[in-house]
Amino acid sequence: MTPPFGRVLVANRGEIALRVIRACHELGMEAVAVYSDADASAAHVRAADRAVRLGPPPAAESYLLIDEVVAAALSAGAEAVHPGYGFLSEREAFARAVEEAGLVWVGPPPAVIAALGDKLAARRIAREADVPHVPGTLEPATVDGPDQVAAVLAAGREVGFPLLVKAAAGGGGRGMRRVVSADELVLALLAGSREAASAFGDGSVYLEREILPARHIEVQLLGDAAGSVVAIGERDCSMQRRHQKLIEEAPAPGLGETERRRLHAMAVRMGSAAGLRNAATCEFLYDRDGAFWFLEVNTRLQVEHPVTELVAGLDIVVEQFHLAAGRPLSARALAAAEQAARPASHAIELRISAEDPARLFAPAPGLVTRWQMPSGPGIRVDTAVEAGDRIPSEYDPLIAKLIAHAEDRPAAIARLRRAVAEAEVGGIQTTLPFHRAMLDEPGFVDASELATTWVDAHWDGPRARAAAVRAAALAAGLAALAGDRQDGQGAAPSDAGTTGQPGGDGSAPEWRMGGRALSMDRWPG
Amino acid sequence: MSRPRVRPPTMITGPTDAGEPALRTPSTDARAVRIGVAPATRLEGDPAFTIAPPPEAGPGTSAAAAATAADGDPLLDGIPARARLHRFDGVRARLEEEGPAGSHRTAVLFGPVRVDRRRGTEVREVVVEGWRIEVELEPERRAVLRERARRGAGAASMGGPVEVRAIIPGRVVAVSVAPGDDVEAGQQILVVEAMKMQNELRSPREGSVERVGVAVGDTIDVGDLLVVIR
């Protein structure tokens, strides 16, 4: 088959840019990278056939510059632009600018991005498509006058408390407020609206019932230019913390074939009603009574798309390129859709981020001194990091996706257990210890406690870390007593104020890689 | 995804000198080493350990300690620890421990060693089951002297200045206090944006702001002095 395009600009960085560039090369297309000064020698730049500098490290001065990215595509002779996820991927203005420059946008049309990016408009589309949306208002809730206040209070009582105030243009929890009683509603609306206005330039907020406990289940959709939309499988992304996903898997555990068909059909109705093309994801909450509630549609490639790829047996990015070139849904995509309600294998993804799970997942950027990722049967690692890289503080903390694929869920969990034990990361704290713990957590292992609230309710980072502190101290102490010196001959730190470490001034850590291997079966001397 | 997320208030302070281990019975062995968690990765309540080689039999050795010497077990906080460290190379090692529930093996990664001249300790990164912990080592005898000195100084000037330093790199997006301001424990001092999240830094204790070392827009690195609270 002829390549869909000759040359593609990838408007992103990190693992997703590399992943898209790989798909370009497998399709016989050239890839053009863009980069900020923080990424001049990054993996995605090295992998691309050419690269264009955008600006200084802050995203607002580089990866978020619509005009510069479009100019880069034009100057590099690209025919199409793939946005990845994050950055400009869901900005209607960017998609439109790409198309107006005569380039092909690899994603849903700008009008669809706009319609679904407005959460209220998306809820109205759901109502028209007979897809149950989370109960709440369908128009902005405003409190500018006494009449409106009375109306909002009535709407709040109808939705029921506790409820959520959410931003129509929202995402990532901004503008969101949890309201437990009518007394708090007006203040929460004002605060949420103010925050939404400053974050998105649009202060529209609305009310939504808080569905607890709930699982987050989303459906991967593909659509072609003729208007055909198919679902190729669903993912469970319930293990999250404050709306940031930590673990994702496909298929969603515990769903029966009938339930799965019903879910996929709702997502397809939603996609068709919105005029979806290319790839998107339709998100739902799944409550304890087995009901699905429409949440929102993401009009882009998702971070967690690999789990669906592994179970459905196709490459979603490759499909995106074919669809963007105007081709109909591929035989592979149609076969995957046919099989989607009867998944034959299981895949789980762990999002490894530069965050500290003992400090409320605070960001932990820094210099990666050691980086050894697992491999072997059924393991896929999507990353753009290597030892010696500095994880910049300007961008998202996601540094790798560790994905296991196996015949069923228990086998996938067993595979991940051995894989996380193979991982070696030094220099920065990552979320790996959280993932290690989850793989031994009974409520996760038997899927009985999957819920969006699980991590906040149950994860105790400092407690999980305590055994490691003891082991680290013991190991360091044993090494010191054994004479842990560069020449392998020394002794424990001396009584003198300084310990005579050559070059050890604290600013430029010296490495001690050359120490001889020594066994501590018996104490020396 | 491309917009800053707001993190709920998080107490991110340090490294301060809070959280020093409680006074302990010092080991009498001159070779004993004190091991704690270095300020950069310390959490409140992290313990410190004293590790000593197996006691040598001789005058002054207690019967209990002499008995352990036969096994060649090191003493961890004075108790024989059935622990061995197998080093594969300069980085990778395996800690083997015998416990009541059987033997336990833990993979260990050693990072580089550096010297913290301010604290006079050797600091090295140790990664255990994904947890990156910077441990600091110093001779037990010196640790005891230092603790005594600290206690003396603490008694003389209760509430001496606390230096609040950055434990994450990022950009200062808000400074909420100025020199001379009174602050309460837990009050917001400044906001640091890192990895698209806003991290609120709060005062570790009550006092008055003596100095503010950063301004809005500054890029900060780990260890930079942010404020001094007296």
| Average pLDDT of chain B | 79
Quaternary structure state of the chains depicted: heterodimer
Number of helices of chain B: 2
- Form type of chain B: elongated
Structural class of chain A: alpha+beta
* Shape estimate of chain A: globular
Total domain units of chain A = 3
Q: What is the CATH superfamily label of the largest domain in chain A?
A: ATP-grasp fold, B domain
Question: Would you tell me the structural class of the helices and strands of chain B?
Answer: mainly beta
How are the strands of the largest sheet of chain A arranged?
Answer: 13-12-9-10-11-14-21-19
The CATH class of the largest domain in chain A turns out to be: Alpha Beta
CATH topology call of the largest domain in chain A: D-amino Acid Aminotransferase, Chain A, domain 1
Count of domains of chain B = 2
Low-confidence stretches of chain B: 1-23, 66-70
Treating each run of at least 4 consecutive H or I residues as one helix, how many helices of chain A? Answer: 17
Most residues in contact: chain pair = A-B, 93 and 85 residues
Topology, number of strands of chain A: 22
Largest sheet of chain A: 8 strands, antiparallel
Map the helices and strands.
The complex is a heterodimer of chains A (525) and B (230).
Chain A: E1 7-10, H1 14-26, E2 30-36, H2 43-47, E3 50-55, H3 66-75, E4 80-82, H4 92-100, E5 104-105, H5 110-117, H6 119-128, H7 146-159, E6 163-167, E7 177-179, H8 182-200, E8 205-209, E9 214-223, E10 229-241, E11 244-250, H9 257-274, E12 278-287, E13 292-298, H10 305-312, H11 316-324, H12 331-339, E14 346-353, E15 355-356, E16 362-363, E17 366-367, E18 370-372, E19 379-383, E20 390-391, E21 398-406, H13 409-422, E22 424-426, H14 432-438, H15 442-445, H16 454-458, H17 461-481
Chain B: E1 5-6, E2 33-37, E3 49-52, H1 63-69, E4 75-76, E5 79-80, E6 83-87, E7 92-99, E8 102-116, E9 121-128, E10 131-139, H2 140-156, E11 162-165, E12 170-175, E13 182-183, E14 188-194, E15 197-202, E16 207-212, E17 219-220, E18 225-229
Parallel strand pairs in B: 1-15
Antiparallel strand pairs in B: 2-3, 2-10, 3-4, 4-5, 6-7, 7-8, 8-9, 9-10, 11-18, 12-14, 12-17, 13-16, 14-15, 16-18
